[in-house]
Task: structure prediction
Amino acid sequence: MPRFVVEADGGSRGNPGPAGYGAVVLDPATGETLAERAEFIGIATNNVAEYRGLIAGLKAARELAPDAVVRVRMDSKLVVEQMSGRWKIKHPDMKPLAAEAAAVLPRGQITYEWIPRERNRHADRLANEAMDAGRRGKQWEPSASTADLAPAGPPGDAAKGAAAVRAALASGGGTRPGAPADSAAAAGARTTPPAAATTAGAATTAGAAAGVPGGARRTGEAASDPHGTEAAAHGTAAADLRAARSAAAPEPGTLFGEAEALAPAPTAVPASGAAPAAGGAPARLGQAPDAAGAPAPVGQAPETAGGTGTGWGGPDMGAPATFVLLRHGETALTPQKRFSGSGGTDPELSPAGRRQAAAVAGALAARGTVQAVVSSPLRRCRETAQAVADRLGLPVTVEEGLRETDFGAWEGLTFAEVRERFPDDLQAWLDSPKAAPTGGGESFAAVTRRVSATRDRLLSAYAGRTVLLVTHVTPVKTLVRLALGAPPESLFKMELSAASLSAVAYYADGNASVRLLNDTSHLR
Result:
């Protein structure tokens, strides 16, 4: 009985947006490409595109051999779990697609396996090529593809492999009769074409896996196993070769989206906006407030989001809600490192800040991951949020709880000026999260309680979705600290630049995973 591996993928640049899928049928013993499928399908969601890729891959396998045993490998946890029968299919758009996929081949001939995204590059590339063709008003053509990793025939030409398997089946010898023992080793000499990387990097966390070539990514499944487990080894030479290729490549990082993962992490960004040390200011004060990176708030909120679970031991309970945390672009106060909270003049974005907002909007639009946009009520955030929302075709929801700390009488002053005018109040503020700035400002403990309540409210409203939160230094650092369950002092060591992206995924079992911190690659 012939055996095939089907790898499938799909993506949407906008979710919903211009979408396409890719699928490839492989010989499990050698990794040889036997068939390829890709198609631009118009406006659709990520999940619809993924299911369409699965259906195309199964049909291609059926065309080669209706009695084949097929191992489906996808980086969509949603599709794998639903087709394996472990997750219910609730969305009305998914039910007919799942039924169609189930009807292609008898259930007993198919097994499903989740794989990290970097091991699904061939199908991913096909999907991106299909979307690129659609953008040009065309359909994908095999002769123009560069997705095939095999050297046999022109790039993307699966005809030779398909002819070989048909000849083998006709002779009754299986998929690759008489294949030499070193055929897999020979296949290992193939080189993987460089991925077209997206512009954002990622800070990886334990158990996270997956980078993605091509730049069009989606939401709808977990990009990393939140409990540190991975799919079982394939047990074939071809799988070992794929793993070796992945190991040789730069380690990719997960990003946002229940499912979002992007390009390899960028080089470290030099710290900017460091707070002055004049007058013996504590070294722990990593940055000046908002415009230059406010000292991260500390407080008494629970150390985990939505529950007490920590570590990797509990149940996953499905796709997480993911908060993509965007600090607003620069204002006139930012380069001057002045306190700029919610009690001051509410400045607008500077020309530099507007350029930053446009850059991050372009990067997020290219990824196609964000499903909703929520903003602080302050003008600099609303302007940044609107720039992104306009590119994504989404409305902006204003959330009062995302506003910056009220710095009271310190608004508009530099750290040095505050130290000169209010030395005792400043020292008390530095020593205790319960101390408020001069003139009735907001303590860090109060900010933490506010941000924690806002987090819980948004998690309830956007369960299982990827949401862009456009906010300020203090709320971003608070969310990251609480997700890590880290001590308050850890926040003073975090850098957070204007228009930077961070990301936290929240699982229904109470666990949280920090997937990104202070990414500014889109600004370079």
The two ends are 53 Å apart (CA to CA).
